[in-house]
Design goal:
Blueprint (H helix, E strand, L loop, with lengths): L1 H16 L2 H5 L2 E8 L6 E2 L1 H14 E15 L2 E14 L6 E13 L5 E10 L8
Parallel strand pairs: 1-6
Antiparallel strand pairs: 1-2, 3-4, 4-5, 5-6
């Protein structure tokens, strides 16, 4: 479980430092991405395209709190709460999102863990009712 907690820490640190490449290393090549209010999609390159505007336009901070981690062979899941802050790089107020999610992880041949499925939901509606 320590390796999974380390992955979550590296994930959050990559978001906060604005390092998209380090963040993408958290995922399997065939990751299934299921953001709130959008259709899910698969593949690390699709996740890169989805996330690129965030990394380009915002200074971000992600705080993850794992509530439960369970391991079953080469698969694991983590139930977590999150706080995500995004401040426009061109200036303006920070937006805050709080929510909860679940990630399903797959052990890699080298023994490390990567996120194979990620689904999350906000604890509040976005402005405009989204």
């Amino acid at each position: 479980m320590e390796a999974i907690q380390s992955l979550q820490t590296a994930y959050a640190e990559a978001v906060t430092s604005g390092d998209a490449e380090a963040w993408l290393r958290s995922f399997t090549d065939d990751v299934m991405w299921m953001p709130p209010g959008e259709a899910g999609f698969a593949g690390k390159e699709a996740v890169r395209a989805w996330a690129e505007p965030y990394f380009e336009q915002f200074d971000m901070q992600e705080i993850l709190s794992a509530n439960e981690i369970e391991v079953a062979g080469d698969w694991a899941f983590a139930v977590q709460d999150y706080v995500f802050l995004a401040t426009p790089k061109e200036g303006g107020e920070a937006a805050e999102e709080r929510g909860k999610g679940i990630v399903i992880l797959r052990r890699q041949p080298d023994g490390s863990w990567k996120i194979a499925y990620s689904v999350w939901n906000r604890d509040h509606a976005l402005p405009g009712g989204e």
